[in-house]
Amino acid sequence: MTSKIHKISVPKFRLSRFLYRKINSFLGIFNLTLVNINSVTNWNHFYELSKFHKFSPKTIFDIGVAYGTPSLYAAYPNAFFYLIDPLEESVPFMKKWSEKIKSKILNIALGSEKGINYLEIDVRQNIGGTTLLKQNGEYWRNNIA
Question: Is residue 54 predicted with pLDDT exceeding 50?
Fold first, then answer.
């Protein structure tokens, strides 16, 4: 038997993190979770909120495209997208998406200064997990790689 997690909302007032955790710890016994209904808990919820508030961006920058962000493209079908990713491995995916959405592909890295820099990037088999972070330690081997 799988239990369903129920979310309950409360009126607007600020709870300390400590109190919030304690309340959720207690509510967890009943498969309940206290959530802030004014916070964005996932991207689909954000897209719904943006539509509700009639937020419709004309231009969107998808930075770190990897395989693409289909939910973003679907949420704003009339927007123009800048698909930005420095990895050569991402280019075929950006090209695929550019056939479906109005976009410009930029196979570049973004930085705070103009010019050319060389980066050591750990390109993973799953390019969505590619990182500039240094690989070391037991946590890295067990949870990231």
Answer: yes
**pLDDT at position 139:** 44
Q: In three state form, how does the secondary structure of 57-108 look?
A: CCEEEEECCCCCCHHHHHHCCCCEEEEECCCHHHHHHHHHHHCCCCEEEECC
* Residue 30 burial (10 A CB sphere; 0-12, 13-18, 19+): exposed
Q: For the chain, give every domain's residue range.
A: 6-35, 43-111
With residue 27 as reference, give the H or E element that holds it.
helix 17-28
Rounded to 5°, the CA angle 38-62-109 comes to 130
Which helix (DSSP H) or strand (DSSP E) does residue 8 occupy?
Answer: strand 6-9
Fold of the domain spanning 43-111? Rossmann fold (3.40.50)
Q: Which two tokens stand for residue 133?
A: 């972070």
- 115-130 per-position pLDDT tens digit: 777 666 655 565 565 5
CA 93, CA 23: separation in Å to the nearest integer?
44
- How would you classify residue 54: left for phi > 0, otherwise alpha for psi between -120 and 50, otherwise beta? left
